[in-house]
């Protein structure tokens, strides 16, 4: 069995399917009996298992140093995430640990998380910076993120999230954004250290006006943008992302109707991050029904980060999206393949089993696709194929 292209509400399931590749690209995907005569150097019988596109985790912060389980314990005892952040913990804690780590330490810590994702069928991962918040430390994080794609058989897309939070040593957020636009972004763009620019538009992050300046600077350097939008409050982040033609607007728990309509018009992907919703015990669910009604493509990602979503399992993210957000199995599976690829600007390259796309596959020991979403903490991955191998 194989899941091929699908549409909004179908996986395009094919019984007795065959996927053929040459030089890492799919040259056929469909029913065996429809396949042209192909001379294959190697034939692998998947013995009735399911083949899907390799999973795409389109929103992670997996390159960081240190651990925040002490904050988890504080939160269990009643302290809020915002209180911890205001007391100098939270993102700032991880910034301290990440700045202090050597390249090798940062790489080793990050590889452990990446390897867990690969073991769960991930073939493409997006990784954000944002725990450096100085030119040197951001560059270190971006370089380590890029290097992971050379150390493992995985596509890595890197996003510059210098606008994650105000660095501890900088009292003036506007001055920091000035420096980010005039000093950091030119280096990041000039050295091709990032494929996109992200920002955290939030009361504890940056204002819409500051985000706008970051986005304008990104556009001037020819870099696409994405946004942490409307996670904890409605600042119109969805509409702002749409206005700049963002690849995606992520979180969106508090997004209103006008933001959703704008996202639909702009063709932005809405990235759902149920791990953060679960781990921070949020109660405001993202407006799934309205996103559906407007036809906004929905992706699902782990948001792997030490503070709000220490999650490395994309399948567990799917289970949470179904259970907590009431997304359907089909939406979940398209959310971690087709729509996730689009959230990275890679819709023509990845995310479905179609001729011409990269032959990145996940082969599963399951009877039905719904098992991938239903099981909690299981890993039915049989094998992972990256670029045809
Ligand atoms: N939104 C989040 O939930 C994380 N970053 C962001 O922009 C939090 C990251 C952390 O707490 O370390
Ligand atoms: Fe995030």
Task: Give the structural class.
Answer: alpha/beta
Cα Rg: 20 Å
* Bound ligands, named by name, code or SMILES: 3-[(4S)-2,5-dioxoimidazolidin-4-yl]propanoic acid, fe (iii) ion
Q: Strand order within the widest sheet?
A: 6-7-8-9-10-11-12-13
Low-confidence stretches: none
**Helix-strand string:** EEEEEEHHHHEHEHEHEHEHEHHEHHHEHE
Overall pLDDT: 96
Topology diagram in text:
Layout (H helix, E strand, L loop, with lengths): L1 E2 L9 E2 L2 E6 L2 E7 L18 E4 L1 E3 L11 H8 L4 H6 L4 H10 L2 H16 L3 E7 L6 H17 L3 E9 L9 H18 L5 E6 L6 H13 L4 E5 L7 H7 L4 E4 L5 H10 L2 E4 L1 H6 L8 H6 L4 E3 L13 H12 L3 H7 L2 H6 L17 E4 L5 H5 L6 E5 L4
Parallel strand pairs: 6-7, 7-8, 8-9, 9-10, 10-11, 11-12, 12-13
Antiparallel strand pairs: 1-2, 3-4, 5-14, 14-15
Helix pairs in contact: 4-5, 6-7, 8-9, 12-13
The protein binds 3-[(4S)-2,5-dioxoimidazolidin-4-yl]propanoic acid and fe (iii) ion.
The site of fe (iii) ion has 5 residues, from loops.
Provide the descriptors you would attach to this structure in a database record:
389 residues; alpha/beta; 8-stranded parallel sheet; 3-stranded antiparallel sheet; 38% helix; binds 3-[(4S)-2,5-dioxoimidazolidin-4-yl]propanoic acid; binds fe (iii) ion
Description:
By secondary structure, this protein is an alpha/beta fold. The chain is built from 15 helices and 15 strands. It has helices at 69-76, 81-86, 91-100, 103-118, 135-151, 173-190, 208-220, 237-243, 257-266, 274-279, 288-293, 314-325, 329-335, 338-343, 370-374, and strands at residues 2-3, 13-14, 17-22, 25-31, 50-53, 55-57, 122-128, 155-163, 196-201, 225-229, 248-251, 269-272, 298-300, 361-364, 381-385. It has an 8-stranded parallel β-sheet with strand order 6-7-8-9-10-11-12-13. Helix 7 (208-220) links the parallel strand 9 and strand 10 (225-229). The mean pLDDT is 96. The protein binds 3-[(4S)-2,5-dioxoimidazolidin-4-yl]propanoic acid and fe (iii) ion.
